[in-house]
Amino acid sequence: MIKELKLVNFRNFKEKIINNFEIENFIIWENWKWKTNILEALSQLWNNSITKLNLDDLVKMWEDYFFIEIKDEKDNKYSFYYSKTDNKKNYLINNKKSSRKEFREFAHSCVIFSPIMMNMVYLSPTLRRDFLDDTLKSSYHEYEKLLKDYKKILKSRNSTLKAIHDNKVKENEIDFWNNKFIDISCEIYKYRFKFIKFLEESIINTKEYFGSKIENITFEYKTKIDRDDIENSIKKYLEKNFKRDIVLWRTHIWPHVDDFEIKTDWVSLIHYASRWETKSIIIYLKLLEGIFIEKKTGKKPILIIDDLISELDESHKDMLLKKINYYQTFISNIYEQENTFYIKI
C-alpha cells in the first residue's frame, strides 16, 4: 500500500509531499487540474496515464525534469525521473537505479476509471482494444514489448505492400513480412485469449445489475481468426486478401482491427440496455480488469478514479464504492463520506 507521494517539478507542483495515505483517499481541491495531476503522477509510476500527455508536457513550466517517488508501508521507495533535455528516463528502487523491467516487477499496477471509460461501448473500437491491451500490459511485463514489435512489423508489411503496388519490389518480398506477422500475431493472441476467456467466464456475474429482466449475458470477441487454428487461419486470410492489400497498402486483419461486444439475451448491449445499466457493466469490466491483474501478478493493483463520480447517479456511486474497498483507491471529485481520508492539497 502507498503511504507517501513526493513530486518535484511535476505539472503545477514545484515540490510536494503527501503522506499518511489510507485505503480510500479522496482528493479535494478547487481546481480540478491539480487533483488530476496527483492521479496522473500515480498512474505514470505504473506505465499508464490519465491525461495521455507526453512526458515533456508533464514537466513543470520553465523546468527541465520531473521526479515522482512513492513510499510503501514497508518504507520501500519507488522513483521515476524524467529529463526533458536529453529525453532520459531513470527508474529507482530504494534510491538505486533499476531497469524498467525490474521496476515494473516490484511496483504495483493501476486500474484507471475516468469519464471517457463510460463511452467504451458506444465509441470507437480503439477504446475497447485499448482496454484489452492495457490490462495485458499490466498483467504481463513482456506484453508491452510484444505489442510494440507487432506494430513495427505491421508497419513494415504495409510499407512492403505499397512498394509492391508501386512496382519497386517483387510480390514475393511480402513472404518475409507475412511470416513475421503470423508469428507475432500468434503471440499476441496467446495473451489476448487468456484475458478473453476470463471475461467470457466472469461476465455472467453482471446479471445482478439487471435483476430478472434478462436471462443471458455474454462477452463476445469479434475476430476473423479461428481460435482453434490461429496460425493457419491468419496465413489463409493473408493469401486470400493479398491483392486487395496491395491495392489499399494496408493489412486488414487481426489484433489491430479486432473488437468485442457484450450481449444481453443475444442482443448487443448498445441496443438493449439503458445507459445506467451499461455504466454498471462497464464499471464491472474495469473491476474485472483489477481482478485479472491481481491473479496474474500476485499484487493488488491501485485504483485511480478521476472525475468519474460526477458521471454516476447515487446507486452507481454506492455500487462502485462498495466494490472497491478491497483495493487502495485514489478518487477525485467525490461527495463527502464518513470515515474517509481526505487529501487537502
Per-chain topology:
Blueprint: E1 2-10, E2 13-19, E3 24-28, H1 32-45, E4 65-72, E5 77-83, E6 88-93, E7 96-98, H2 100-106, E8 110-113, H3 125-139, H4 143-165, H5 174-202, E9 217-222, H6 230-240, H7 242-248, E10 259-264, E11 267-268, H8 269-272, H9 275-297, E12 302-305, H10 314-323, E13 329-332, E14 341-344
Parallel strand pairs: 3-13, 3-14, 8-12, 12-13
Antiparallel strand pairs: 1-2, 1-4, 4-5, 5-6, 6-7, 9-10, 10-11
Helix pairs in contact: 3-5, 3-9, 4-5, 4-7, 5-6, 9-10
Description:
This protein has 345 residues and is of the alpha/beta class. The protein folds into 2 domains: 1-108 and 300-345, 3-Layer(aba) Sandwich (Rossmann fold); 121-296, RecF/RecN/SMC, N-terminal domain (Glutathione S-transferase Yfyf (Class Pi), Chain A, domain 2). Helices cover 41% and strands 22% of the residues. It contains 10 helices and 14 strands. The chain has helices at residues 32-45, 100-106, 125-139, 143-165, 174-202, 230-240, 242-248, 269-272, 275-297, 314-323, and strands at 2-10, 13-19, 24-28, 65-72, 77-83, 88-93, 96-98, 110-113, 217-222, 259-264, 267-268, 302-305, 329-332, 341-344. The strands form 3 sheets. It has a 6-stranded antiparallel beta sheet. Strand 6 and strand 7 form a beta hairpin. The radius of gyration is 22 Å and the shape is globular. It starts with a strand and ends with a strand.
